[in-house]
Structure formats: C-alpha cells, structure tokens
What does this fold into?
Amino acid sequence: MADDGRGKAGSAGSARASKPAKKRFSDLPKRIASGAVYLIAFLACLYMGPISTMVLIAVVSGLCAYEFYRMMRISGLMPISVLGIVFAICYPITAFIGGQTLMLGLTFILLGILALWYVIYPRVRVTDISVTLFGAVYTGLMLSSFVLVRDGITGYSGGAVALVVFVSVVINDSFAYLVGSRFGRHKLVPRISPNKSWEGFLGGLAGSMLVWLALPFIPAVDVSVVEALVMGAVCGVVGLLGDLTESRIKRGAGVKDAGTIMPGHGGMFDRVDSLILVSFVSYLMLKLLGVL
Amino acid sequence: MADDGRGKAGSAGSARASKPAKKRFSDLPKRIASGAVYLIAFLACLYMGPISTMVLIAVVSGLCAYEFYRMMRISGLMPISVLGIVFAICYPITAFIGGQTLMLGLTFILLGILALWYVIYPRVRVTDISVTLFGAVYTGLMLSSFVLVRDGITGYSGGAVALVVFVSVVINDSFAYLVGSRFGRHKLVPRISPNKSWEGFLGGLAGSMLVWLALPFIPAVDVSVVEALVMGAVCGVVGLLGDLTESRIKRGAGVKDAGTIMPGHGGMFDRVDSLILVSFVSYLMLKLLGVL
It folds into this structure.
C-alpha cells in the first residue's frame, strides 16, 4: 500500500494480471503529457540556438547528477553530491565556451578537489570520491558531447545535426516501446530489464536508422546514405546500452525510478539515459567522418 | 610500539623501540640506490626528448594504475584492472599525439566501455566501475599533464620547464625528509601520515620555491621571479596533498606500500604520488600565465 502503487488503467479499464504492464498503461496520459513538455523544451532550445541548447543540457546534466548521487546515497555510499552536481552543470558550459581544452581542465580540477576532500575528511572513502567522479563525468561530460555536436557546425546545420541525434533517441525509445508492447515475445535481457524484447529492440533500431537517414540532406554535412544508416544502427544499439546501464544503476540502488521530476517517466536520468551515450557516440562518429 | 614510530636521529644511533623508523634507516642504501635509478631514468628520458618522456610517463602511469587497482582489490573492490591500466598507459600517448582532444575522446571511450561492462556482467557494481575510472584518470590522465608541459614549448626550453617541475618535486620530498627528520617537532597530519612535521613541510616548500626560481632563466619562458616563487609555493603545497592522498588510499586498503618495484621506496605510486598532482597544477598555472 505504501510504496508500490499501481494505479487505475488509463482508458481501457480491463483487469490485467501483469502489474508492470498495468502501471505502464495507467500512466500513459501522464507519460505523454510530461514527455511532450520535455520534447517541446528540447526542440525549442535547439531551435533558439547554441546558448539555449547549452543551458538546457547544463540543467539536464545537473538533474541527472542529482538523481545519480541520490541513488548512490540510497546504496550506502557518500558521494560529495554538491560538488558533483556543480561540475556536471559546468561541463556543458565549458564545452560551449572553450571546447575540449576547458573540459579537460575541469576534469583536472575536479580530481584535485576530490584529492583535497579525501585528505581533509577522514570518513570519505575511495569509493565515495570515485563515485563522485563517475557521476559528474557520466552525466555532465558525456552530455556535453551534445553541445559539441550542436556547435560543431555553425548555423542551422549544426542545429539540424543535433536534432537528428536527439530525435533518433526519442524515436528509438518510442518505436521500441510500441513494437515491443505489441509484438514483443522474445525477452532481450530479462535479468536487467524484464520488459524489453528483441522485437522492440529491432523496432527501435529501425526507427533510429530511419531518422539518421535525414543526415545526408542537411546542408554542409557530407555523409553518404550508407554512412548515415550505419550511424543510425550504432546509435540504436548504444541507446539500448545507455538505457540498460541506467537500469542496472537503479537495480543496484533498489529503486524503481531515478527521480520524480517527470510524471510517468520517473526522473530526468530515466529519460535521457540513452541520450547520454548516443550523444557521445554520435560526436565521435561525426568527428571521425570529418563532419564536425 | 606498533603504529606510530618516530625514529633515530640521523647520525646519533641510540636504541629505540619504533619499527618503521628503524626500517626507514636500515633501508637507506637501498632507498638511495633505487632512488638514483629512478632519478637517472627520468632525467635521461627528459634529456633525450619528447618521445622518451612520453614513453616514460606511460610506463609510470601503467605501474601506478596497477598498484592502485591492487590496493582496491585488497579493499574488497573489483575494478576492471586491465582496462584501467591500458587506459592509464594510453593517456600519455594520446596527450603526445593529439593533445587534449584525443585525451577527452579516450575518456569518452573509457566511459562507454565501462557502461558496456557494467551491463554485461551482473556482479560488477557501480563502485567497481567508478574506481576503475578513478584509477585510470587519477594516474594516467593526471600524469599526462607532464607530457603536455614537456610538449607545450618546443625544443630544449620545454624540456627545461618539465625538468623544473620534476626536480621541484624531488627537492620538495628530499628537503621535507631531511629538515623533518632533523628538526621535526610539530606534527602536521598525525592521523594520515604520522611522520610528517610542519618543519619538514616548510623545508620542502622552500626547496620547491628555490627550484622554481630557475624558471625565469629558461629561454622562451616569460615569467617574473615573483610568479615563479608563487608557483613553487603552490607546487610545494600540492605535492604534499598528492602525498597525503596516496597515504590515505594506502591506509584505506591497509597496506604500507603501494607496491614493491622500488626497493626502499615501495611502489611507483609511492614515488610519484606528489608528481601526479604537481604536474597537473603546474600545467594549469603555466597555461594560465601563457607560458604553454
């Protein structure tokens, strides 16, 4: 009664045996509403330009870091949350201002402060400072690559490339959900995420590839259709990996959602788990292909 | 009797109960011998040029990472040692080849592999991957800044600046040891490192400042004497911090030395603990002053 409330079924009120599925459907309106807010915020910031994109990513990074450290505290660790959150917010800002050099400098400084902290406070353990580093870097540094993608090409083309990256993640998630909940039969990774199916994964993969097909049509972007499809496929797989990583972090902490900021989705970290890894891999691939 | 040994005064050989201090002096010839090997190797590599310096730092990073992970395993953690060591070795190499951009790319890739590893192996915990990241970054990434200092100015001037950084750490250690063991009265941080005294710290600080005084005399280096003295003082403090950080890591694992590769000194990590932080702070200061 206290913790694990399921909820009434959304529109179709038929009785169902499986609890997760019922929850999922009962949450659908809320899920769609908060998903729409998230989507609109992202698209608006992307459209308005590099600065708003940077601010958005900084806020998202800070929220993810906050949720990450919260889960770590639940697991019994003592990360230096405030420090980690501040650095997670700073990474996208430095990515915008000074690119890689400043981001590296920030990592150096974070390590220096962690060393100082570790020496000063006798109760802090290596695991605490390591987890603090991991949280800031996994959320802030990784998401900064989205800023680097956005700023890699000036003008609207940069925004369009960033849009492809972002939309591919959204479509990957949505297609996986839609295909999986309708045709899902073969469990993908029952141990980590019992609701995922191979069918859903393939649906998401196709969606991601489809979105990346837009890339060759963006002005100032010189990639072939095959390259775009390969990048879409890689991002599809990597998006799943990001999702599973976050699921495992949650399982480790014994929580169902990373946070509560997005009704129906859970926390911000739940929502952008795929984007974290997809941004970085996209950045890497676009850099290697000479697009950025 | 067990823990907090003081030691015989340098030449005066009166009998004392304390074991660590006795050990320290009985080790002196070994200590000097292996210290000399280390010193000569470092100076030779610095003299021979950027490539040999990079190779040296890569080897030192790998050894430090190895010793770090060994201590973590003793503490009951399960870092992915081989991965961390490989990345610790790669950091200085990428610093040499591509500078900061590649180093950042390497961090991205390390995070990606760690996420994959975490998803694949159910027994791996967040703390394990966090500690793996910390080990590689704290040794490899931090020591890479020494390579960046060396390569920041072309030709012999770059070598000379790197020499100042390195020698200042050695002199800091030696002066602290010499002054501390002769005049040390006031304990500095009894909880972490019982043998350290304020007198020794100030001796080391003076030594570090003295060495940095050489900086304004290096061709193509435009710093004032005051700037050099300030940098020397900062490096003196930071060197102590690096030393204490490593001491705390050792205490956490319950080991006396990080390793055994340097007879009389312990492990490589024991020897370069100060250099790790001093390299990075020197790099930062020299960069800010426009020297690099």
Observations:
- The first strand of chain A starts at residue 187 and ends at 189.
- Residues 41 and 56 of chain A are 8 Å apart (CA to CA).
- The longest helix of chain A spans residues 81-120.
